[in-house]
Amino acid sequence: MLVTLSPDGDLMARFVLRSTESVPRIRKHLPALLAALPALRVVSANIHPEHKAVVEGETELLLTETETLRMTVNDVDLHLRPQSFFQTNTDVAAALYRQGRAWVDEAAPGSVWDLYCGVGGFALHVAGPGRDVVGVETAAEAVASARLTARDAGLDRTAFLAQDATAFALAQPPEARPELVVVNPPRRGIGETLSTWLEESGVRHVVYSSCNATSLARDLALMPTLRPREARVLDMFPHTGHYEVAVLLGRA
Ligand SMILES: C[S@@+](CC[C@H](N)C(=O)[O-])C[C@H]1O[C@@H](n2cnc3c(N)ncnc32)[C@H](O)[C@@H]1O
Prior knowledge:
With 252 residues, this protein is α/β, with parallel strands linked by helices. It has seven helices and 13 strands. The chain has two domains: 2-66, no CATH class; 86-251, Vaccinia Virus protein VP39 (Rossmann fold, 3-Layer(aba) Sandwich).
């Protein structure tokens, strides 16, 4: 089972199953489970037929009418659907988004991209009047979650696209380039193509949030004119050797 606890104490529970064989039984007993556990908001079955080193499969069957868990982080009411990434430690994620927002507000850009945006944590913390924000993320469920939050908050200058981050950046005409880019990639980092694009793009500021300092250092070496201005280590993965590093980069 994969269980997510929201800051308000609500739960999302996902049964990860080899096949759909037990789904009718889960459906049959679901009313009793919901009655016994009122905090349970979202229940789904994830079908994971293969034995391999990933925790979930591609097929998700929602079993409750409610499809999203509300994750209130700072003053942002994020929606979380099954199959969407969420930062491991919600309190530390809140601190990370506050730091991101502080750096972005200080740079005061009129336009921001949030690449690898997940359910839109950074994008939705920096969105506001007078600022165009675009979030890009490959997971369609996460993009759907981010769009719901933007719609609820009435953010009509904020858009989310289900696309590869590098392909998106490379496909934009120069006049569409933003003043600031946030990147928060998986452990492999943003890679050579996107690092080189950022270096040559003329984008004034980059906020790079990384869970792997080795790939972060490799990517930063490819962006020599984007100089680190401030950096912060966040204990996102307590009791492990892993940590999150957020860096504000500005043009030399
Ligand atoms: C470390 S998570 C960060 C998510 C988000 N920024 C947050 O604060 O929750 C990395 C995200 O990158 C997404 N991702 C992985 N490969 C991608 C790609 N090539 N292009 C865009 N997004 C990608 C993953 O689905 C995941 O949601």
